[in-house]
Amino acid sequence: MTRTALEIVSLSKSFGKTEVLCDISLKVAASELVCLIGPSGSGKSTLLRCCNRLEEPSSGDILIGGRNIHHGTARDLRRMRVRTGMVFQGFHLYPHLSVMGNLTLAQRKALGRSRSEAEAKARLMLEKVGLSEKAAAYPSELSGGQQQRVAIARALALDPDIMLFDEPTSALDPELVGSVLAVMADLKAQGMTMLVVTHEMGFAREAADRVVFMDAGVIVEEGTPDAVFGAPKMKRTQDFLQRID
Ligand code: ADP
Ligand code: MG
């Protein structure tokens, strides 16, 4: 049986009186790529943010590698954060640090790696995202697509168990989207576990093992890309897919 990398159990989240996630349950198997799609405001980002405790759920549980991330000490929390690599729409690189500086900082602070160890790891990860020659560059000298690939390399350098992507290509000029999606497809091919919020339906269709459609804080439908895109069962899914075509 395949190992479960991430398990979300009956997760609910309210902001004040507004319930934005309502009894969400979802499992992601090791090496699986799950794409989360749905209209703006449906709760996709909040769900992802709960997975590394950038948001506190109102109720429910989240397990990573079988361990509940909502129990334990502050030290456990720091360790757990490192195990989920998060990549956002905006790249969140430190502008005053070089690419190498961006890639080594968290390795040294969160994992206590030595400078040489962190730099060696950073070089490996830069190679993975096709940016070996940019180690000395500053973020402002890079295209948006290159910055996002640096952000991916930075997350990978921490050896996460799962990568969480929140619309990683939405801020990019159309001609730069492909390079980032290609890196993500590569990661998938290498066996990385990934939960990806995306509007790139082509990517979801081609690369995902499973597609989950969310609307108004609930999972409406999930299945293989062929099932969800080719023969959606629910009216809300059909309407959404029609709108974005
Ligand atoms: P999506 O990523 O699918 O667009 P979000 O998870 O960002 O959706 O938002 C879901 C709902 O939660 C929206 O109605 C949004 O306005 C609300 N929301 C998100 N974050 C907060 C917050 N910090 N405080 C209050 N409401 C929030
Ligand atoms: Mg969002």
From TrEMBL:
SMART domains: AAA. This is ATP-binding cassette domain-containing protein. It comes from Aurantimonas aggregata. Keywords: Amino-acid transport, ATP-binding, Cell membrane, Membrane, Nucleotide-binding, Transport. Coiled coil: none annotated. Belongs to the ABC transporter superfamily. PANTHER family: AMINO ACID IMPORT ATP-BINDING PROTEIN, GLUTAMATE_ASPARTATE IMPORT ATP-BINDING PROTEIN GLTL. The lineage of its organism: Bacteria, Pseudomonadati, Pseudomonadota, Alphaproteobacteria, Hyphomicrobiales. One of its GO terms (cellular component) is plasma membrane. Residues 6-241 form the ABC transporter domain. One of its GO terms (molecular function) is ABC-type amino acid transporter activity. InterPro entries: AAA+_ATPase (IPR003593), ABC_ATPase_HisP-typ (IPR030679), ABC_transporter-like_ATP-bd (IPR003439), ABC_transporter-like_CS (IPR017871), MetN_ABC_transporter-like (IPR050086), P-loop_NTPase (IPR027417). It is found in: Cell membrane. It is a peripheral membrane protein. It holds the Pfam family ABC_tran.
